[in-house]
Each structure stands twice: as structure tokens, then as C-alpha cells.
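Page header: ASSEMBLY MODEL / two components / 1068 residues total.
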Amino acid sequence: MSHKLTSNSLNNRPLKDETKLLDTLFSTVVKFSPKLLIAILILPVLGGLLGVLLPAFGWLPALDRTQFGLQGFQQLVQTPGIAQMIGLSFFSSIVSGLLAFVITLLLLANYFDSPWLARIQRLLGPILVIPHAAAAIAIAFLITPSGMIARLLSPWLTGWQSPTDWLLPHDPYGISIILGLTLKELPFLLLMTLGAIAQPELNIKLQAQYRVALSLGYYPITAFFKAVLPNIYPLMRLPMLAILAYASASVEMPLILGPNTPPTLAVAIMNWFHDVDLSLRIKASSGAILQLFITLSVLFTWWLLEKLTQAISSKSLSNGQRTYGDLFWSKIINIFTLLLIGFIALALIGMVFWSFAGYWQFPLALPEQWVIMHWQSALLQVQTPILNSLSIGLVATSIALILTLLTLEFEKQNGAQLSRFSSVIIYLPLMIPSIAFLFGLVWLQEAVHSKATFINVALAHLLFVLPYVFLSLATSYRLLDSRYAQVAASLGASPIKIFLQLSLPQLLMPIMMASALGLAISFSQYLPTLLVGGGRLNTVTTEAVSLANGASRRTSAVYALIQMLLPAIAFSLIWLISMRKKRQKAQVKLNNKTASYITKVNR
Amino acid sequence: MPAVWLLRLIFLAWFTLLFAMLFTTSSLSYANTAFAATPETGSITSTETITETSSVAKVNSVLISNNSPIQTKWSTGETLGKNPSVYFHAWGGDPQINSYIQWLAKRVKQEYNIDLQHVKLTDTSEAVSRVLAEKSANNHQQGQVDLVWINGENFASMAKYQLLAQGWVAQLPNFWLTNPKENEAMTRDFGLPTQGMEAPWGQASLTFYYTPSINVNKPKSTYQDSIRHAPKNISQLLTWAEQNPGRFTYPKPPDFLSLSFLKYALITLNQHQPAPVKSGLYQAVTKQSQATLLPILWTFLDKLHPYLWHQGRYFVASGTALQRLVGDGEINLGFTFSAAQVPAAVERYNLPQNTRSFVMQDGSLSNIHFIAIPYNAANSDAAKVVANFMLSVEAQAKKQQAKIWGDSTVLDVSQLSQQEQLLFSIEQQHPSALPVSSKITALSEPHPSWSILLTREWLKRYGAQ
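Prediction written out in full:
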């Protein structure tokens, strides 16, 4: 309805010189934007890498080191426990990635054709936007010896009057890290996969194949693995690799949940960069290079695993076996899903309890007093951090959104997708461990005497926001029915008019979703804010992480909850708008009906 | 059509916001450069103040009154530029200290129109590495750190790489209230002479706190009763840990509280040694002093670690995390350098009500913490004004109040007027606070080289298991 109106109004206006100028400007901007997008992503990352590479090989003029050498790497090799650090980083990322992948598949397989899939998606969705730090804090609250689980079981089951000294968290095997990473990455992977499946054409094809498999007597889970999975795995690969890369180099999770004798490599690198002994920076830079190789080898291992699985399972795809104990597995998955949701709910409830708790001695499952002083004192201090979070998020997201839309428009106008090289570049900041290039980036910013802290931080956030915004918008934009644009063009509409008045309104909801996602990603950035901002810009996330290791569980619970609420507000705004839009549509339909009724009656 | 309008509106709003921000930040950076471009006026003021301070030292009492000529001179706007900002890089892990710094910011805004910004660090070394990064990028004038809260190894490190401004401390009129001629500790940081690179701010000694597991002490039980079961010296600590496995731990080096504990153990374990051997602790480490003084510490720790929380396989990152463990009831014994933190934490429900503070009978490690100005600070003149205010009677007395921070003053209170001395008197005691009657045997800080050695050797022995 509205589109029809638009094309009519387009037709009525004569072309002016002014609009011509605007058109040429627009087409130049559009032509230029993919290059700008690539430059914005590639320059800081490569520059940052260079800024780490030079010190790694011994070049650090500030310490009067101007000779290239392998000292840093020698020091690195001699570090006590370096093998454990590497092992911990490697295995915790592989295992957590694998777990998240398997659980995603099991959930999909068990609930592929049931309304529960949408419900689980809605339940896990909020976790996607919870920053890693807040999630780690919540999980730590749950599994510590004085945490919710121990409190619920004590003293009636365990007999503990005071917390028992058990392994979790901070266990030397990285179990806590794996738990945290798995829980955090699972929703991401699930939602990315569901998003990919939701593409109309693919969805119809998958549903059809699934139904055929069912009608041939395959049990549901088996049907999913044999008929659906081979089609969707290629779509899961990229998010999967992003998860693995992130997990291998993440700092927040291992910092809050992991061991420290020794810690993971990424945490150790961060400590070395911040050490009093300034000469450790050379070792830290070498460590960052090592981290890069570890991340690459994690990705390579995943690729090997993929090939191996393919080789082993390709025959069983066509062996005709209809079930592999489907009913048993289905029960197991049901129980597991219940446990999973219970675990998450308990973590959240525990955190809410702590944020309102007065004295709360150990075996008690509920606080002795309820007070609001933690919220009061936090809310007094949190205003500036919230404003900073919001403004950085808005700037980074807007730039990302505009660049993405223009780049996609370029694609559309030229009728070709971005080159393979460019699509890889877009994922560069997700694949290269941020710890490897952020320190170099800070050094570069120092070198060019860049003083605008706010812009620097916003640009650093842009590096991480842009890929996600692009990911979430690209599919919808590419699926846009091009016939509308063709009709508009044939009626004489200029490209800019088509872009502004046709494409964008049609994409309102995806744009909204992308901006909410962008905001959420920006809110959760810890290392970029801390390093690039030099501590001058406090956001809710930097405050929450520094308080996570602080003295008060209660205050850190408050900050973690605020951290969760911020993106939640963004998403609920989107939800409100979408509801309004739906209502308007319904209204329009109703009006149409009434109108046709009236015309009928009049006749 | 409303969708189109909504979209246009959003885009318009975002663009406006974007440009507004671009504009404000760029204009801000211009303002900074403009301020820095007038170094002549700044240096003139400094020379003037130097000449004046020498006379000031003699007439201490005149200085204290707020309307003395120098104080008004310090506050004049022209010398500082318009509305200068001072970025104070200070550890931000304690809400009490943070709100004290907020109070400082409010006061210097009122008095001198200076915007004091607290940059909250998780570790002071972050500021050290920032200044270093600036030096390596040849940023010698526009440094982002104007003032830093520092002592010990961080100071030694910054002094070694010449990252600090020198000789400015004597310019501060209020510095002379600390009576540095009589009180040598004010110009020595962990044994190193400060050479006018840092001004004293406060002092503290290592205080332990204890919470009995089960509520054995009745509400009326006396102070002595409630700490009867707590260890009182280093050897009792070991036996106590053996009897209460998993109920004590200490943070991991290089955390400063961790090193304080290790240094306390090092000093007290070597107390039986002859004086010339012991004096090795207060000089740079040599191979010989290392061989005579260290082994006893490692034997002690080897015995202690199996009885620590998590069997000594995980060490908390900081003193604040240690306090959280006590608060959760996971351990029963903790220690801190800011004794006033304990009652404050009880008030905020972060420690149980039956927490009691005490000092070890065999000695308590004591040190002074300082404030320093990096060599390349963009707003060093304003930073000096702030530092001077931090040493004022008003700010120091406020800081010493247990409800505010409880950090001991560095001023020589006996030299102050009767009225001013009253400001420093002690209020009503909290049951969890360290009793005023506690006898503190102060142990001086060893030479900073010991901290570096302890960190390295500890990490080698226990850092990777």
C-alpha cells in the first residue's frame, strides 16, 4: 500500500538540477563506501598488528631498544608454565566451541519442528546481549563454594555449615572457563543458525526435505542430522569460527572464572603489558604474536575436525538407518534443556538476590535482610558511565549502519556481491584476537598524537560493531525484492530516491534489529574501551569488570545487572516499535476492509 | 508513510548527534593544545613560587590560614588557563576512596576552578605503561596522566625510566606541613629518596581482620575474647592454618598487598638474624643477602601453602578479592593496608558483623603512599595546585576520618594550631575497627629491589603448578 503511494508520488515530480547533483553525489558516495568500509576495518587491525610485531622482535625505542632480535620470544619460552598457558587457551576454546556446537545441534534436532524452538530461542536471546563480563560474574555467583548451588544444597544434603573448599571456579583445568564460554556462545550460535535457516527459500527447502525424511520413516532427530544438517552447516561455519577465535583469546571470562597459576595466555599477555617491569612489554608483544598463532591453530584444528567428521559420517548419511535411539536421546535432551534453563535462571536470580542483599551468611538460601543501598549508591555513580556507553554505542552503530547500507546498496546497483577478499576482511576483527592488535593500535594512536579519546574509542568499537551489523543486515538487504526498485526506476525515480524511499522503509525492522545488535556489541566491549580510551572513558562495562574483582559481590551484582539492562532496553524499544508497526498494519488492513465494505454497500 | 518519516527522523537525529560529537571532541582537543601552547606563563609562576616557598618554610603558621598571599596566588585563574582539567590516575577499587576523591574534585572546583577527573585504575602500573607509551611515541608535552597515586615499585620503575617531573614538591606550600626536615620518611619511598618527584599523601600499616566461622562470640563478648583464636604472629599463623585448612589465603604477586604479606613474612621470619644480615633487607638485593635471607621464607611458604584456600593452587588477584572471600565466609582471616576499610565494609554488609581487626604482635609493615606528576603531564601546573590542596589541613583531616577513608595523615599534627589539631582527633570507634589502643610495631618497607625479586621467585616457584 505505502509502496504504491511512493511510486505514484515519484512519478509526479519533474527532475531538477538540484536532484541531479544529489544523484551524482549519492552515486559517488555509494561507489566509495565499500572501499571506505574495507579501509576502516583493515587499517587499524593491520596497523595494530604492526605496532605489536615491532616490539615483539625487540624494537621499542622508549626503552632504548632499537635492535631487532628474538629476545622477547626467548623470554616467552622461559616463562614458567608457558606450556600450560598455551594448553589452557587451546583446549578451553576448542572444548567450549565443540560443546556449544553439539548442544546447538541437539537443541535444533530435538525441537526442529516444534513450537519449543521459538520458545527456547526467546529464552536464550537475552543471554546473547549480556556482556561476557556480566555473564561470567553471574556464573561465578552460581558455582563458587558459597554460591547459589551450594546454598540450595546445604546443609540438608551436604552437611556444610561453612563453604567447603571445592574446585570451582578458578580450577586449573579450565572447567569453569569452558562452562562460561559454552553458556555464552551457545545462544549466539543458535540464533545465528536460526537466522540463517529463516531465509524464506532455504526454509521452504529444509522443511520439505525434513518432511520427506519423516515420511520415509526417519525418526525426527535422525531426520534432522541426515536431511537438514548437511544443508545448514555451511551457514554455521563462519559464526563457529568467530566463536572459536574469540574463545581462544578472550580476557574477561578467564579473568573472572579461570585459574591464575598459570592463567590463560591472553590474560598473561594483558598482565605483562600492564606490569611494573616495563621491559616485559617486549615479552608481551611476542606473546601477542604467539596468541595469533594459537588462534590460527584452533581454527585449523576445527577445520581438521570438520573434515574428519565429514569423512567418517558421509557413509552413514545414506545407509538408510532410520533411528539411533531417538526416543532415548529425545528424553535426555529434554532433561538437559530443562537443566540448562534452570541453571541460567538460577544464575540470574542469584545475581538479583545479591544486588538487594544485606547480611547473607552461608547456608542460607535467602538473604537475611533486603536493602536497596547497593542500588542507590551505584545509581549515583553510574550516570557518566551510562552516558558514555550510550554515546559511544550510538556513534559506532550509526557509522556502521550507514556504511553497511551504502555498501549493500553498491552491491545492489552493481548486481554483484562483494569480492571474496572483502567478505573475509569484514570478519577480520572477529577472527584476529583483539589482544594481538589493540596494544599496537594504542601505540599507533600515541604515535600520531591522537587526542580525541572519544572518537578513538568509538572507532575502536566500530571495528567490532561493523561485522555484526553487516552480518545481520546483509541477508535481508540481498533478499529484498528487486522488482520494486525496477518499477520505481522505470517510473523515473533516481537511485537516491529508490534507496531512501523504497529500500530503507522496507528494511525498517532489519535496520532496527541491526542497530540494537550493534548497540549491544558496543556496550559489551571491554578491552577496546580500556586500552584505547586509556581509562579516561568509563563505560558500564569497564566499571563492571573492575568491580567484578572488587570487594563487594553486592556492588558487582548491581553493575552486572545494569550492564544487562542497557542492551535489554535497546531491544525492547525495537520490540515496541515493531508492535506499533504491526498494529498499524492491522489498522490499515481493517481500514481497507471497511473501505471495500463501504464501496460494496454503496454499490 | 509513517514508517518513512520515522526512518528519516532517526537518521536525522543520528547524523546530528554524530556531528555534534565530532565537533565537540575536536574543539576540546584544540582547547587542550591552546592551553599547552603557553608554557612561558607556567614556568614563570613556578620560579616565583620557588622563591616564595623558601620564605614560607620559616613561617609555617602563616601558610595554613587559607587567605595567605601564596594560596591566593596559586588559585589565580590566569596562570592556570581557563578551567583546566587534571586527570588523576588512581587505583579505583575502593568506593570509600573514590568518594573521597570526588569530594576533592568538588573542593578544587570551588577553590581553583579546576576539573579534577579521577581515572580509576585497576592497577597503578596501567598509568606507568601509559606514560611509557607516550614517551615511546615522542609525546613529551601532551601526556594524558597529570597526577598519579603511586609508591614502591611503581615509583622505582618510573624514576628509573625518568618518567616523573622532578623537584616540584618543594614548591608546594603545604608540603612543609609534613615537617620533612624532622620526618625523613616523607622524602623516602621504600627506602629510595624521592628527590622531589612525589609528595606524600597518606600512610598505612598492615592490619589483619578475623571472622570466627561459627558465631562463637556472643554479642557482648569482649574484643580480646573475639580475637582469642586468631594468630598473633608469623609462627602462630602457620599453626592456625594447619588447624583450619582452607581458611586463609593471600593474593598473588605482583599485587601490592600480596607483596606486603610476603615482605612481612620475610622480615619477621628473619628477625632472629644478626643486625648486619638483617640490614640487607633495606639495601639493593645482592647474591649474598638473597642466599641468607630468602630460604627461610620459601620453607615457610612450602609448609603453609597446602593449608591455604584451594590448597594454594589458586591465589586471588587482589586485596579486595581477599575481602570478598572473608565476606562470603570462605576464609576467616584477611588483611588490608587500609584499616578503615574493615568497619566500612561491615557497614555495607560486605563483611560479617563479627569481624574484628587486629595487628600482628611481631610487627606491622608500614609505608607512605605518594602522589607524583609525570614529566610530560599536559596540565602539570594545575596538578601542582591539586597536590597542594591534597596536603592541606582540611583535606588531610577529612581523609583521616574513619567514615570517610580512615587513612592516616602525613602532616606533623603536633606543629599545627590547637584548633587544627582538634580536626584530627578520633571519633567514636566501630566494633570492627582497629582499637586505638592497639600497639603497632612498625616494620619499614624493604628496598624496592626485594619486591621485584620476591615476585619473580614466587612466580617461578608457585606461579605454574
